[in-house]
Amino acid sequence: MSRYEIYSPEGLRVDGRRYNELRYFKCALGTHAHAADGSAMVEMGTSQVVCTVKGPQEPQQRSSMDTKKAVLRVNVHVAPFSSITRTKHTSNEKQLQELSMNLEETFADVVLAHLAPRTEIIVDLHVLAQDGNIMAGCVNAMCLGLIDAGVPMLDFIASVGVALADSVPLLDPNHIECSELPNLTVGVTGKSNKASLVIAEKRILLDRIKPSLDLAIMGCKTVHDIMDEQVRIRLNSLEDRIKR
Amino acid sequence: MSSSNIEQDFLRQVLAEGLRPDQRSFNDAREIEFNFGAEYGNVEVKLGKTRLVVQISASVKAPRSTAPFEGLFHITTDLSSMAHPKFENGTSNGVEKIMVSRMIEKSIIRSNALDLESLCIVAGKRCWMIRADVHYLNYDGGLVDASCAGVIAALLHFRLPDTSIDGENVIIHDISERPPVALSVLHIPISSTWVYISLSKDENDADNVGDDDMNDSDNDIDSNDKNLEYGIRKIAVLDPTALEQEISHGEIIITANKNREICQITKAGGKLLSSSAVYNYSEQAFDRALKITDKIQRELKKDFEQRNKGNLGTDLSKNALNERPVE
Amino acid sequence: MKLSNTELEFLRTSLTGTPVIRPDSRHAGQLRPIESEIDILPMTYGSARVRAPDGSDCIVGVKAKVVNRHDDLIDVSVDIAGLKDNDALPNSLALVLKQVLDSCPEITNNALIINDKYGFNLSVDCVVLSYSSHPLVILSAAIFQALKSTHLPKQLDSLEMDENMDLTKTKTADEAEIPQFDDDWSQSVPLCPEGWTPPLLFIVSAINNTVVIDPTINEQLVAEASMFFTWKNSKVSAPIETLNTGSTPYLGAFAPELLLEAYSLVENCAPALEQSLLSSE
Hints:
The structure holds three protein chains of three kinds.
Chain A: E1 25-29, E2 38-44, E3 47-57, E4 71-78, H1 94-108, E5 120-129, H2 134-148, E6 157-165, E7 168-171, H3 175-180, E8 183-189, E9 195-200, E10 204-205, H4 209-243
Parallel strand pairs in A: 4-5
Antiparallel strand pairs in A: 1-2, 2-3, 3-5, 6-7, 6-8, 8-9
Chain B: H1 5-16, E1 32-36, E2 42-47, E3 50-61, E4 72-78, H2 94-109, E5 120-122, E6 126-138, H3 143-157, E7 159-160, E8 163-166, E9 169-172, E10 181-182, E11 190-199, H4 203-206, E12 228-229, E13 232-238, H5 242-246, E14 251-257, E15 261-273, H6 275-307
Parallel strand pairs in B: 4-6
Antiparallel strand pairs in B: 1-2, 2-3, 3-6, 5-6, 7-10, 8-9, 11-13, 11-14, 12-13, 14-15
Helix pairs in contact in B: 2-3, 3-6
Chain C: H1 5-16, E1 35-38, E2 46-51, E3 57-68, E4 74-80, H2 88-102, H3 105-111, E5 118-130, H4 136-149, E6 151-152, H5 158-164, H6 173-177, E7 189-190, E8 200-207, E9 210-213, H7 217-222, E10 225-232, E11 235-243, H8 256-279
Parallel strand pairs in C: 4-5
Antiparallel strand pairs in C: 1-2, 2-3, 3-5, 6-7, 8-9, 8-10, 10-11
């Protein structure tokens, strides 16, 4: 039995949100302008992910070069202080490897890699604070990081998670909801309203899949709009600098 | 190691005409076969030319201090060059290896297919450790589907020696003494894999990139022909062979059981899917799960009937506890 | 970026001339400007982020938990983006930083020990997002800031609690020692004692017979030897060690008179850095 009332009869969640409310979403581009070619930071509630992108650049190892397209490499680092109890993560943990592989594959669709053959793009994601699933934060941060680095892309990928409390899908779950409920992470490309990324774990009834996905896609749309606005702000600030 | 350009081009051409080299339709899976071995928990799985052997073994261990009431369950996968030269040790092909073991883990362990609490003997002191070793004999795609079905079939086939507690001591009864007990398998997760293959750009469609191509109908699986994304035609193929896997970009793996539960979805990249398309895939995965679950249960029944021919209840010559050398 | 031999030679000549000319127009005893933020992470007891103009960027988070007091009280870990966990650099940095913090009785004895049986275990975790020159200096500045911002929950006075309890009931020794903490975070106490500042580390490089403080990556390339100095309690103190910056295959050494000069460089600029870090709060 759960210690928390995950979804009250009045329709409130543990942190007082309604089922379709996102947590406070904040993002910024160029947060580490001197450190890398592109950088971004995303905060979803208390989750915090920093992304730095280096490249397209000459590959450090010749063996990892592709003569037809740029190679996208993603490293995910989870800081030991990111969770409530301190845990040290090593980069060769299977879960982190799987996460970075999923990110590579998701972005392979939108990054126009064939425009920069024989190069590599290195994406470092640092999870500084995790509250709930880290996948959505990583996708959003990586998307903004790549945009900030000027990597040619077809579109945004915005991502958000959904947890299922019996029949009610809860948007953008926090860590209590994530640990108690089956949850899925969805990434939507641009304004297509279609998912390019779907990751689900734990058992979900088949008939609940569609309403959960619909809610997640709606949430992604909001996230997309916020990110789009930030990209425009960054673009304008760069333009101003050029004019001056 | 990899196939030639000619082979790949041929396959793309054939697929563009709506055919597959092995005469299946895009949404057809290969027939899966189970052969149970003489020992409990030994099963050989054949999925087309893909072949693998799963062996379950059990030993008594101390439970983890964080979960004193739970037994232990490990799955090891041994994807070596025996299956295919491309899995040679030390080469950069670690991606598929990690993916396969993670997918099996997610489908079976994380979905709680095996009731770990039933493996407890004395709380906090003794529990069973169940190990599933998956050995790949030949590779022709469909690793995740075949291994998931193999591991779960082997778990269902396995028999654990009965135990009783005498004061401080745990007695493990030999199979000749007491009939061994089946593992408590809570549900039967079955995985289905589709891969996405981008067919060469159609000249006519290349002009209207970003047009209304994205708003096409929702019944993805059924109308593969009209699926264009940024001017590229993408098709989904169920249960890919090695060659189909090689030319694919992105996949969707859904694990379902016969209770209409989705244990796991993994889809990164590939094609853009609307929510109803994902639902359609899930529905198909569920149908396939029903079929394979049925097949596993039929085969198991057949096997146990064979075993119990002498009407002794169990085959006394076999020891249920498959010995493993001490690590 | 690799420099050509000509460029290296030019750099060496300009650094060894009189007056010393450094590529970024600093004088020999001048530090690079750094930028810092504190309390940036919600999940930690104290955190800081420090950036340097060369793109070096690091984040430090401090967490604490109650352990048996005879266990190690301070843990330091360093994670550098792009380097493997078993790489020499992060591990040696973590060792040096742990050594420095362990030798601060102001933290270990005063703040971390709760009673005879229990103490706080302080985990100082450093994440280096990027670096080009040796990350030790900015790491020490970030740890300085993070420790300054660290607060620990207030321990409830056992006497206070006893008033509400049944005084006739005698408690076992074990029970009496289990520390109780105030839930109210506004009551939390700072880790660092009033007026005390955590240690700072400085790197000094020797090129021929000149010494420069806080070398850039290119300056380190031409340096024969580099050393780091610890600044603690308003004086230079141990550990002072030579540092392998990778410019030479062997560890270079300082001539005695250069060592004295390096010593005075640190003495000159450390108080200013300390002051500016403190005032940024």
